[in-house]
Records
---
Amino acid sequence: QVQLVESGGGLVQAGGSLRLSCAVSGRTFSMYNMGWFRQAPGKEREFVAAISWSGRSTDYADSVKGRFTISRDNAKNTVYLQMNSLKPEDTAVYYCAVDRRPQRSVFTTSRSQYDYWGQGTVVTVSS
């Protein structure tokens, strides 16, 4: 059974930083692209960042480019999201997700590309 467990959320002031982690089990982690999404109250879940299975390619939503960094440690089966210069509009529940296909050569911002999701971790940025 595939399981994803996020951690690292919390309350932070605007301008601060947080690092989210997502530990994956039940799938050969090193063969799958990984993504981070977020959902603010009353809004649709939206793409934040993605990283290829090799770790050589990344993609970011325009709203977080230059502030957030996605990375992975295949030895620890863990993907990270380093969030700097946080803004109140970054407040949301953050979810990690694993691609439904192994070694996919490209990734998109679409949720349909991912088949397993974590339970989410809450990030609150105060002004």
Note: DSSP finds no helices and eleven strands in the chain.
---
Amino acid sequence: VQLQAFGGGLVEPGGSLRLSCAASGFTLDYYVVAWFRQAPGKEREGVSYISINGLRTYYLDSVKGRFTISRDNYRNSVYLQMDSLNPEDAAVYYCAIDRRLHSNIESYWNRPDEYDLWGQGTQVTVSS
């Protein structure tokens, strides 16, 4: 039972990346999924969240209009499309799920403690 985040890399400012979060050993359909990021010396911060049915999404203010979260339950995956990247977006990005099924998680979607299974992280570097 694990999550795997991949798709990071080096991109120039203004560029795009698409991160993927794949589940193995279980079905992702039953869980909300969130993306977090952590830059060196900074706390882990919630970037985006998607509900089980994909109809509700939330974003960190600084990425609104540039990042898009989506899910493909057929492929057991969640994606984070990141456009117009800037150096402040550079970090290790993690996907996470809440297996405890907190009923009020949408009120606290950006709190790391709400999630109990994490992928290993994928590095995003934004530099010219």
Note: DSSP finds no helices and eleven strands in the chain.
---
Amino acid sequence: VQLVESGGGLVQPGGSLRFSCAASGSIFSINVMGWYRQAPGKQRDLVAAIASSASTNYADSVKGRFTISRDNAKNTVYLQMNSLKPEDTAVYYCYADAPAYGRIWGKGTQVTVSS
């Protein structure tokens, strides 16, 4: 069982990026999927999360700019990031909370917002 992330990279301030994260393997149910991020020298903080019911939770710093969504049939979560700022620069980690496995983490994807 693993999470496979795609997206990320270098973008100018004000630009957009889209992540996807797919759970592969024998996962029969996932409660919550989402993203954390960790900037150099800082702790890992929650960015956004979405439950299987589609209820969402966002960090205050990204509200109105980021949108999280998921496809339960594909065990995939998406993060649309708009109006990116230099302070959004970090390694972004996908996670999934699955009853049979606990919390599963992706390997992380670098996002750099710079002109």
Note: The longest strand covers residues 90-98.
---
Amino acid sequence: QVQLVESGGGLVQAGGSLRLSCVASRSFFNLGWYRQFPGKQRELVASITSANINYAESVKGRFTISRDNAKTTVYLQMNSLKPEDTAVYYCKGTDVFGRNQFWGQGTQVTVSS
């Protein structure tokens, strides 16, 4: 059974930093971070493949995604956090051509003003 396990969420003051980690039970072509606000659909925060890194406009310059060489662990370094970054953050692993997608259970990030 494929598993992705996130960690690193928590409560931080505005302007602070957090580092999220996601450990997968196997490697993936694409690893990404998404977030979900109450009552909203999940949205892409950042994703990474061997050839490409994508960021949502709202996090560019503040968040950095990285992964290990084995392609089983992905990180999200979040700096200069804002209250509007408060959400549940999910890790997703996707195989090549999007054939299979797996989600983690999510981790809460709360930024106080």
Note: The chain has a mean pLDDT of 96.
